[in-house]
Amino acid sequence: MNALYAYFGRMGDHDLNIPSHPLYQIFFLNSISKEFGIKKFDVYYYDKYPNAFLNSYDILDSYRGSLHKKIINHNDISLSDALSGDYDVVFLKYRFRNPSRISSGSFDRLKFDSLYEKYKDRCWIIDTDDEILESYPRILSLFHDVRFQYPGNPKVKQLIPILSDDIFNVLVRPDILFKQYALTFIGNEYSKDDIQNQFREIHQRTQIPINVQGKWNKYPFIQYVIPRHMRTYGYGLWQSSACSIQISKPQYLTYDFMAPRIFESYLLSTIIFSKNSFMGPFSKYSGMIDLCERILTLKDLTSLEYHKLLESEINASYLNLKKENINAFSGNSSKKC
User: Fold this and answer.
1) Helices 288-298 and 195-206 meet at what angle, rounded to 10?
2) Closest CA to 94 of 153, 4, 7
3) CA 210, CA 25: separation in Å to the nearest integer?
4) 3-state SS, residue 243
5) What whole-number distance in Å separates Cα of residue 314 and Cα of residue 324?
6) The CATH number, out of the four listed (3.10.520.10, 3.90.1310.10, 3.40.1030.10, 3.40.50.2000), of the domain defined by the range 166-322
7) CATH class of 2-159
8) Which of 109-113, 146-150, 277-281 ranks highest by mean pLDDT?
9) How many Cβ atoms sit within 10 Å of the Cβ of residue 93?
10) Which candidate, 20, 141, 219, 288, has a CA 20 to 30 Å from the CA of 35?
11) What is the pTM of this model?
12) pLDDT tens-digit profile of 24-63?
């Protein structure tokens, strides 16, 4: 089966000031390949960037590089090649008309539309941001809660973005695991409910150094604001930190959005806290006091104890996701409206 995958940014690590989520992309492709029985993908990027690192993986380089060789046929193909290909199935990351992207000379939506028109009878629209406004017949969603409704009456397939096998294959061994008492958050500060006050309270209660990467103002409770383009540095800091936290749009929590940041944190052998229903018993918190007590617990753990807790939380999260899938699609969902 020949497949096309269209995204923006780049697949590998890079230091370019462009929108992208390079860490989880190759793992996401691997998840898609297993779900649909696809051996190889051609990859098209909506924008072209000079000097972009196409095949460079500075973080988890050996494993990500091996996945790249295994499942990517051609990387960074041209639009004309993408439109003239003989593909059995096409996966298009949804694009909307973003004023800032258009102002910078990008035409993501125009290219998305041209690809969709060519392949709409065999196309899955990928929603990783809760942005889809139009009706499409097939949507690949990271919303885990089946109550979430897309426009129209599409066939929706929920897909866990990263396989548990991939997570456990890259976990750092407990004998070489070293974590600093720090919290690293990757993401912008806008569109997130009261995130600044939440971080202020976390710092006040725990005295944990907080690092952020993305579009942020500098606050007294933030240790480092890492520019978006310094992705390799940000991932390294995340990997050395004791914890991260998933805070995003309120709708993401309401409908159990499987944020890639959760699974990326696992890839980096870092415990991440979230209110999502599928999180493990230690990682799922109910409020600020509860969260801060959990963070303080990490301060005194040995590397071995931390590693055991991390493994337990990952196992519990995936088990919960599996159980919820069985319930949701057998018509016995335990969720209440």
Assistant:
1) 50
2) 7
3) 26
4) strand
5) 15
6) 3.40.50.2000
7) alpha beta
8) 277-281
9) 22
10) 20
11) 0.91
12) 999 999 999 999 999 999 999 988 776 666 667 889 999 9
